[in-house]
Amino acid sequence: MRLSNVPSWQYLLRDVLELYYMGSAGGSAKIRTHMAEVRRALGKVFEDDPEIDYGPAKMLPVCEHLDRAISSSTGLRTAKVARSLESVRGLLNWKYGYEKVPRGLTRKYGYTEILGPNGPVVSDRIIVGCVLFAPKTTYPAHSHKGITESYVCIAGNTSENDAGVYAPGSLIFNPPGQMHRITTADREPCLLVYAWTGNPEDLRNQKMSFSKK
């Protein structure tokens, strides 16, 4: 089955693409370049019309917060992404991404890949997914080798490296190798869309380094 035959995945990826068209780079040339790279890669994905590979769907404890995150986006410009995500939620494979989950995160964190080498929309051009955090979560400082990363906040609020608070619609940018630590608000979950760009080998072999601190 191809992407062109499954409207629900088309809508979700188009809504993510719209975030990178409508969002602001805040005057940053590096962020503007990354946003353009994400747009180009997503455009190529639609041209490729890749296969849909439905692996086993899996929920994690943090998914108990998903309804709240989706409903809290109502009326925001990020609501389209949240609604599109809801339409495919029964097909999503939520993961931790580690053989040994960092202490305290088993009920507070999970991510699901939407587009990338691991599917369900299979491509080695770019990785797009969602990450969900429970309230009052601290995600340890880490970096990504060879990966340029951005998050767009869909619902809730988050802070990175204690440098500011990011509300729905905000974009957070991390160049390769930059250490970043994520915290979330005390009472509400946080739902983020992420995009990773890099060469296909780095995208297939996603290496993440945690701070020893």
TrEMBL record:
Keywords: Lyase. Gene3D superfamilies: Jelly Rolls. It comes from the Bacteria. GO terms for molecular function: dimethylpropiothetin dethiomethylase activity. This is Dimethlysulfonioproprionate lyase DddL. It comes from Hwanghaeella grinnelliae.
